[in-house]
Amino acid sequence: MRLVVIGVNHKTAPVALRERLALVGDDVNVALKQLEAFTDGCVIVSTCNRTEIYALVPQTLTSQNLESQPIDTQGVETAGQAVASQTFSSSANVSSAVISAHIVKIKTWLANFKQLSLTEIDSYLYVHRDTHALTHWLRVAAGLDSMILGEPQILGQIKRSVHLAQDQKALSNQLGWIVDQVFAAAKRVRNETKVGAQAVSLSFAAAKLVTQIFDDLPSRTLLIVAAGEMNRLVATHIAGLGVGRVIICNRNPERAEALAAELRHPDRRVEVRTLQDLPHILAEADIVSSCSGSMDMLIDKNMTLQALKRRRYQPMLMIDLAVPRDIDPTISRIDDVYLYSVDDLQHVIAGNIEQRRQAAVDAELLVSQLVVEIDRRFRVRQVGKDIQQYRVRTHDQVDKLLHESIAKLQQENVNPEDILLELSHRLTQTLTHAPSKLMRKAAREGDSDLLDFVVSGLQDAHRGR
């Protein structure tokens, strides 16, 4: 398949090295242009947990010319320019040695680009090739290789990486076809298994609770008590569900305004209030998320009963992520109030993680099956291109012979029958040369299976005519 992946992730390298190898911002655009020059297409995936280079080894390379081409990150002669002048050769001719040499070339390029020595990073790099590289890419896209098993964000990150490669003209047609297969397969894995079905983060679990208790979310109001990082994540997840109104209560108005700016949307009203307003606005909230870090309880039972009365006992979901707790735990005994503490959510998450681990077994099996299918389609697609190239070259040879015969026919004192017989003989020699050479090679190397396959295939072809 000629696909290779070279990278580091949270399992192979410490965060300090991952930071040094990260390819972000303008680095990505420059890196893509340099890699594109000596590959048949490349995609760079760089997140907080991984930096990976996916590339196709050029199918016209040989180990000799690969070794002779200098690694140049300043735009001098590149492997890609040398490859462009070479003649066609089938992908089957790209040997394991050539792919290994190209992997070393990409590793060396990465070390040079990040101004590190290869010996410094080599032991942390993992390498996959051909179907193993495809398996890895599909596992990553499906969330099976993530720090949080089954997390969906990585697929979006890969899609953004592919768009960057397209913008820099680094995504070849062939690599683009592989990318499409990876995206389609990853979608199947997530749809046909439960590897991503259960919430495994506090913020995502909180959002799942909202969807289980409420419908018609555009008419619902979310109250965020304290605008710290945890509540920011909760607010982002729940607001993303389509909640129509958000109220932010916080001691520090600047932090509240910063969160409000993140959450504002044409279809969403966002308001900032002080903590002193909390008793008065609690009744307006269908969903409450609190995580203040305060030593005092912010929402007590009496405040909640008064809010419920003003709400005419419409249900409320309260999520208390604070330690010590912000919300009186006795509120859980009140009808029409669903109160979840951080421990409650952790228990839900622990059970969900185990369910994801079990689902991952089915997902890994499906990945293996999908890789076989994609590899088979790739081979059929590739041999179609090989056949097209073979026909073009054969047509050129036949056309040359035909023009030579026409020229002879235009001479004086020639026998047209002799010229046609000569043309027939030369055409026969031309068209049977390649299969004859293949049969002799198979016989010489003792490959009886290949010999039988070629002989029977040719016989069937002639019988079909």
Query: Could you describe the largest sheet, including whether it forms a barrel?
Result: 6 strands, parallel
Shape: elongated
Question: How large, in whole angstroms, is the Cα Rg?
Answer: 32 Å
Helical/strand content category: alpha/beta
Q: How would you spell out the order of helices and strands? A: EHHEEHHHHEHHHHEHEHEHEHEEHHH
Helix content: 55-70%
Alpha plus pi helix count: 17
The strand order across the widest sheet is 7-6-5-8-9-10
Residue fraction in strands:
5-15%
Termini, distance in Å?
33 Å
Outline the low-pLDDT stretches: 72-92
Q: Could you give the count of β-strands?
A: 10
**How confident overall, as mean pLDDT?**
87
Kindly describe this structure.
- A hairpin with a 3-residue loop joins β2 and β3.
- This protein has 17 helices and 10 strands.
- The model is unreliable at 72-92 (pLDDT under 50).
- The strands form 2 sheets. It has a 6-stranded parallel β-sheet with strand order 7-6-5-8-9-10.
- By secondary structure, it is of the alpha/beta class.
